[in-house]
Amino acid sequence: MARLKILYLLLQTYKTKKMNLLQNTTLFWDTNIETIDPEKNARSIFERVLMHGTVDDWREIKQFYGLKRIKNEVVEIRYLDKLTISFLCNYFNLQKEQFKCFPTEQSTQQLWNY
């Protein structure tokens, strides 16, 4: 009986965290939030939070996923801007060449070179 209660509490915590993570309508404006699975869609969540999110969004994904999972996933993202790659390199002590998106450039160049 105690195991069932623990499993129930864990499930409730998971649902609460999922809802808190996906409440930001500015990051997920083009997606039905109810269909996003935080485990299956973690990489796209990381991409949106890192490139367009706030510091609070960053803290929330760190708490929800953990730094190890974030570090393993971000190097596999297909596109990150230069500023985001620089932040991740400094934060996780990585090299730019370790990112899958590093050798690929955007076909349309940005107006501002930072």
Task: Walk me through this protein's architecture.
Helices cover 54% and strands 0% of the residues. The protein is mainly alpha-helical and 114 residues long. The chain has a domain of 64 residues. About 4% of the residues have low confidence.
Question: Can you describe this structure in just a few lines?
Answer:
Helix content is 54%, strand content 0%. It is mostly helical.
Keywords:
114 residues; mainly alpha; 5 helices; 54% helix
Mean pLDDT across every amino acid position: 77
| SS summary, helix count | 5
Helix content: 40-55%
Structural class: mainly alpha
Radius of gyration: 16 Å
Termini separation comes to 58 Å
The run of helices and strands is: HHHHH
Tell me how many strands there are: 0
What overall geometry do the principal axes of the alpha carbons give? globular
Low-pLDDT regions: 7-11
What percent of residues are in strands? under 5%
Describe the main β-sheet briefly. none
